Amino acid sequence: MKLLVPTDFSDNAFHAAMYAVTLANEKPGSSIHLIHVLTPILNDPIVIHDIEDEATKSLIKIKAELKSRCTNCRITHSVQVGDMISEVNKTIEALNIGLVIMGIQGLGKTSRFFFGSNSRSLINKSTCPVIVIPETTIFKKPEKIVFATDYYDSDLDALLRLVPIATPFNSEIIVVHVFDENEEAQSEESMIEFISNEIFKTVDYPRISYRVYYNKDTSQGLKNFCDFTGADLLVLSARKQNIFQKIFGKSITKDLVYHSDIPLLVFHVHKMETSGVL
User: Fold this and answer.
1) pLDDT tens, position by position, 117-130
2) Taking a C-beta distance cutoff of 8 angstroms, is the pair 265, 178 a contact?
3) Contact assessment for residue 2 and residue 121, using Cβ atoms and an 8 Å cutoff
């Protein structure tokens, strides 16, 4: 498991790094790479060099702290200068990163880095899956994972990519579809049963169950369902005009992401697609 943790040296970024340690400890041979990206306002080589030196010293301190808690994993670090999204994606490709783990703060607090447009840009533009770690997340194994589906074909691909993450923890995966028309409950039950049969043919993982859940608001329904099931991780597949857009395209997103106590894992679909039945 190769993990990338972007940091601005805030408490919240360190919180995300500690979550990375929680994951890495469960899979021998895992690695964590810490990255700090400088985006200078002024192109002064002397000033940039001084800031790089200070950032490197801070990264070395964080690395030592993490290493004391993750003796069996490899921890590296780098300071990059440039656009944050571009530099993160370059590092993902260079190091063959499997997951980006980033911190996020609750509303009403200031931030220097991963907050607001930067965090949402990274979620949308990262070339690999991103786990968003709320500041109130408790460090625990993801033993119960909720996977939200809108019955798109790419959800099957995301589920296949989720299995290797879930396997070291023997996680229970609950596939759920939130629907907003109460009179459609019977047809939704039939659809999720059909989906479960299709997934069974392709996904070799024994601990998967399937549910439908009614709520007129998709994101609130997911929050309620995660609370009800005691989920440790919520998983979404991001694409245009799907559950991800319903959540991240309106203000309830802030409530879901910034006020949630559980991490959010986002897989990416980089092409247009139509709704299907997996």
Assistant:
1) 566 678 778 899 99
2) no
3) no
Domain range for residue 246?
144-268
CA distance 180 to 202: 28
Q: Are 186 and 112 in the same domain?
A: no
Calpha distance 214→180 (Å, rounded): 6
Asked if 69 and 18 sit in the same domain, the reply is: yes
Q: CA-CA distance, 97 to 20, in Å (whole number)?
A: 13
42 burial type by CB count under 10 A (0-12 exposed, 13-18 middle, 19+ buried): exposed
Dig out the tokens for 251 from the structure: 């203000």
Q: Are residues 124 and 164 in the same domain?
A: no
Tokens of 275: 């709704």
Q: Are residues 154 and 38 in the same domain?
A: no
**SS3 state of residue 3:** strand
Total domain count, the chain: 2
Please, is 43 exposed, middle or buried when counting C-beta atoms within 10 Å of its C-beta (0-12, 13-18, 19+)?
exposed
Question: Is there a contact between 236 and 247 (Cβ–Cβ < 8 Å)?
Answer: yes
Rg of the chain in Å (alpha carbons): 19
45 and 148 in a single domain? The answer is no
| pLDDT tens per residue, range 18-75 | 999 999 998 888 999 999 998 877 777 888 888 899 999 999 999 999 999 988 899 9
Residue 110 has a pLDDT of: 42
Are the C-beta atoms of residues 128 and 92 closer than 8 Å to each other? yes
Instruction: Give this prediction's pTM.
Output: 0.85
> Phi and psi at residue 221, in whole multiples of 5°?
-60, -40
Question: Checking DSSP bridges between strand 130-134 and strand 264-268, what pairing results, if any?
Answer: antiparallel
Please give the average per-residue pLDDT across 135-154, as a whole number.
87
In this predicted model, what pLDDT tens digit does every residue of 95-119 receive, in sequence order?
999 999 998 764 444 444 444 456 6
- Whole-angstrom distance, CA of residue 100 vs CA of residue 132: 8
